[in-house]
Amino acid sequence: MRRVDAPDGRSWTVRRRWVPRLGDESLWNRFRRRTRQAVRWTRELAPDGLELLGESVAIGIAVFVISLLVIFVGLPVLFALLDLAVVLLLTLLGILARVVFRRPWVIEASDDDGQRRTWRVVGWRASGRKLLEIEQLLRIGLAPPADDT
Questions:
Q1: Rounded CA gap, 96 and 73, in Å?
Q2: What is the rounded average pLDDT of the residues 119-140?
Q3: Which helix (H) or strand (E) holds 3?
Q4: What beta strand segments (E) does 42-123 contain?
Q5: What residue spans of the chain are helical by DSSP H?
């Protein structure tokens, strides 16, 4: 991701979109959101009347504490690791698919006002050249025409 200041005062962000289907959400934000959902889901599984337990045998308390640790720590960590493994696998498969099937990389230039322009370029090197070309055009004040608006 590169920041470019145009002569007219606008600031542009030029980048290569790795996963265009995520929209503005990054992979890290998706991971955090999914982890929070897993924690909320496991909290719903926990019993509601914890304060009604009263006195019990030490072994019962120990089992209860261990089960709570498994529910509130173990399951969210397991879900987060599973989600991370799926995201990494899909990322690798996506990169492989882009290379094998010659899927285009999405180059995006967006300014501070929310104006967004995109280009589809086949090939890693060609997309890198397109990034530099767009960056240079924006730096001298020319707005390059977008493939998709």
A1: 34
A2: 90
A3: strand 2-5
A4: 104-111, 116-122
A5: 27-45, 58-69, 75-100, 124-139
Residue holding tokens 């265009």? 20
Q: Does the pLDDT at position 76 exceed 80?
A: yes
Residue type, 101: F
Cβ atoms of 14 and 108 closer than 8 Å? yes
Burial label, 75 (beta-carbon count in 10 A; 0-12, 13-18, 19+): middle
List CB contacts of 22: < 8 A, sequence separation 6 or more.
30
- 26-74 pLDDT tens trace: 667 777 888 888 777 766 665 544 444 444 556 677 788 888 888 888 8
Question: Residues of the chain with pLDDT > 90: what percent?
Answer: 18
Place of tokens 């890198």: 128
Amino acid 36 reads: R
Q: Where are the domains of the chain?
A: 2-139
Give just the sign of the alpha carbon dihedral 47, 48, 49, 51: positive
